[in-house]
Amino acid sequence: MHELVVNLHMHTNYSDGSGTHHDIARAALKTGLDAVIVTDHNVLVGGPQGYYTADKKRLLMLIAEEVHDQARLPQKSHLLVFNAAREMATFAPDPQQLIDGIRRAEGLSFIAHPFDLECKPIKELDIPWEDWQVQGYTGLELWNGLSELKERAHSPLHILFYAYFPRFLASHPPARSLQKWDELLNLGNRVVAIGGSDAHALHAHKGPLRAIIYPYEYHFKTINTHIFVPNPLGTDAAADARMLYEALAAGHAFIGYDLPGSTRGFRFTAQGREKDAILGDEISAEGGVTLKIKLPAAAECLLLKNGELVQRWKNQETCSYITTQPGIFRVEVYRRYLGKRRGWIFSNPIYVR
Ligand SMILES: [Zn+2]
Ligand SMILES: [Zn+2]
After folding, report:
1. CA-based angle 41:46:51, to the nearest 5?
2. Ligand nearest to the CA of 68
């Protein structure tokens, strides 16, 4: 099993971002990411998908898109579309048709920034997901970097503070997102959680002063999705893309807030009578199941069953829990960073049946 650190959900100057695909590649290589998924608004950009290298580092860049109905006002309900291999924006007016079309194209769909709020100081409207009646999507973006700025910046002073000190911004996914995710899981849906940066490398200007706030590099060190794949990345981009997306669709992934400390090395596994399982897998409760958690460093670790806390470990690196009962088990890890308790790791569930 190989762990890939992937930053996903970002924009270039093909939509409302300020950088190019090369700027993204440069920043991602510098940060040490394994892969990025670029998602411009309503355009599937051909060409830049493939490998980029620098200083013995290697990056896989995948091209996807973020689709919404541009005729809708305000422009709510954004959907991340991965691996559909064709332009899906034409389906945007009907979210269910869009999701069905993506499935037919063997693509993945993720509800983006599901509970995005209005941010008056920067005159940004709220763009949450509004079409919860839809079915058949792959998952949701539990934590979105830009949405969190909109949520925490209540005044121009906050904007200024977080622009100069972005490290103070990310704290945890919105409680509403976690609650909705548990609700959907408890209804029997398989909903894969991802963390997205929504990096734009925003241009800010005040009089003659111009600056890029939240550059790609900042985002790439921050909220990443770590994906477990069976083989290391090779030399065939199409085959690697297939492997990465298959693992993501299966929920073999966790969200890591890598700024306070790398989350590489986190593991959540289960051992049953007949087989072993990793996050995203199902395993039978018969004969008992041992859930094992390994953290990259000692931290506060929470194990949840069907959205309810079952055990909390403080300042521990390895944790285990035995169950003989079915349930949807997932892990949240918190640690202190810059004077505040912050979310560090959010795992996808192991389904004990
Ligand atoms: Zn969006
Ligand atoms: Zn976006």
Report:
1. 105
2. 1
